[in-house]
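F.,

This is the one I mentioned.
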């Protein structure tokens, strides 16, 4: 199996990078927090997710508690995808490239909005 790349990482590499075992990874997968790609490898973002799950665990937040965050993220992604879907289906490669740029831009904006809404709900301001 190939080693980790910028976009893909194997199961063993993911567990090593995150410092977790098979049981933890299986639990996180069961809650949909991390999922392998169709070919069995993981997106490199899985390492980031794993690190955040571990950090939240230090505060007593268990993976089962994070299902609501996963559901919210899926809904936000669905909204972004709905907006850019017409561009993604276009035959023109330049238009499809524009769809990818638009997706990244909208993803960044939704993350910022989500963070601001959580901060407002908690009455805190992060630096």
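My design for it:
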């Amino acid at each position: 199996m190939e080693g980790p790349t910028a976009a893909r990482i194997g199961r063993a590499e993911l567990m090593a990078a995150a410092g977790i075992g098979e049981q933890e990874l299986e639990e996180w997968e069961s809650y949909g927090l991390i999922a392998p790609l169709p070919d069995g490898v993981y997106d490199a973002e899985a390492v980031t997710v794993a690190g955040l799950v571990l950090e939240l665990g230090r505060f007593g937040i268990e993976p089962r508690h994070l299902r609501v965050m996963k559901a919210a993220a899926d809904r936000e992604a669905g909204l972004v995808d709905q907006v850019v879907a017409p561009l993604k289906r276009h035959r023109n490669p330049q238009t499809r490239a524009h769809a990818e740029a638009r997706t990244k831009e909208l993803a960044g904006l939704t993350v910022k909005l989500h963070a601001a809404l959580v901060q407002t709900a908690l009455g805190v301001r992060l630096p």
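The chain is about 65% helix and 5% strand.

Talk soon.
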